[in-house]
Amino acid sequence: MTIEDTIFTPETWYRAGRGPRYQQLSRHIATEIRTGRLQPGDQLPPERDLAEKADISRVTVRKAVAQLVEEGLIEQRRGAGSFVAEASPRLEQSLSSLVSFTETMQARGMTATSEVLSRGLFSPNPDEMLTLGLAAHEKVARINRLRSAGGVPIALENSSLPRDILRDPEQIETSLYALLRKDNSAPTRAIQRVTALNLSSNDADLMKLPEGSAVLQIVRTGFLSSGRPIELTRGLYRSDIYDFVSELRLD
């Protein structure tokens, strides 16, 4: 099916001062795909035609489409053109179960991978002091990771733990909880808060999404059975492929 012309007119996607044209066009097409106006199998106009409809250069079109291909939203078929890719299956994680990202992916037959962006021992910031009950002279272990499954970036997770709970952040490879369980120091309950957020430029680059893309922000505080708070994790999760599900019961 060929996409209607009106989707690409400049009035529908271009705003002065909102960033390079290729990024704006890429975000516009991504939004049309995620809202369902563009369906899997829909074909984009040929490069020359799309440039004419959008009133931009073919180089700009090429950069916009390349970004969509990198995000997995568009697939290019040799000799046929560019098409809206089949939707990725959505991942569900229960808000009532305290499991790690790695365990969630394994339960779905997927291999979780982590790219450590930074880690080490630091002086706690005010938020960490308040949440984890730390004094200014104590140290906090931090690990910031890009979490992926099947080669697709899915989440950015920034975790902070007291030094006596995580003495050496260098030990963490994939699963933080797996390491904590070895020392019987994994949280047994947690409080999570879910909010909507738009990605900053730096986070968008890491997650291979357009700047300003909507994601789910999860702020989790994990507690030991004694009631001591030992984990503060802030995570950004792709809202286009990730669902958080809670079960409600009648008391």
Written description of the protein model:
- With 251 residues, the chain is an alpha+beta fold.
- 27% of the residues lie in helices and 31% in strands.
- It has 8 helices and 10 strands.
- The protein has helices at residues 10-13, 21-34, 47-54, 58-70, 101-107, 126-132, 176-182, 201-207; strands at 74-77, 81-84, 91-94, 112-122, 140-149, 152-162, 189-198, 214-223, 229-238, 242-245.
- The strands form 3 sheets. Strands 4-5-6-9-8-7 form a 6-stranded antiparallel β-sheet. It has a two-stranded antiparallel sheet with strand order 1-2.
- A hairpin with a 2-residue loop joins β5 (140-149) and β6.
- α2 crosses α4 (58-70).
Please tag this protein with its features.
10 strands; alpha+beta; 31% strand; 251 residues
Strand content: 25-35%
Number of helices: 8
Helix content: 25-40%
Q: What does the average pLDDT come to?
A: 84
| Low-confidence parts | none
Enumerate the strands of the largest sheet in spatial order, edge to edge or round the barrel: 4-5-6-9-8-7
Radius of gyration: 21 Å
Instruction: Tell me how many strands there are.
Output: 10
User: Biggest sheet, open or closed, and with what strands and sense?
Assistant: 6 strands, antiparallel
Sketch the topology as an H/E string, one letter per element.
HHHHEEEHEHEEHEHEEE
Overall spatial form: elongated
Which structural category do the helix and sheet elements fall into? alpha+beta
**Cα end-to-end separation:** 51 Å
